[in-house]
Amino acid sequence: MEHFDKWQEYWDNYLLNKYGKQEVVSDADLYFQVARTIYKKPIEKPVFERILDEITQGLALKSMDILVDFCCGNGLFTYELKDKVSRIIGVDFSSHIINTANQFKKADNITYCLNDGIEFLRNFNTTFPGVRPNKYINNDSLAYFSVEQLEEILKLVVAISGDNFHFLLRGVPNADLMWNYYNTDERKQKYLTDKANGDFSNDGLGKWWTREEVENACAKNGVKCMIHDQDAELSNYRMDILVTGQ
Ligand SMILES: C[S@@+](CC[C@H](N)C(=O)[O-])C[C@H]1O[C@@H](n2cnc3c(N)ncnc32)[C@H](O)[C@@H]1O
Question: Beta strands 37-38 and 41-42: pairing type?
Answer without folding.
Answer: antiparallel
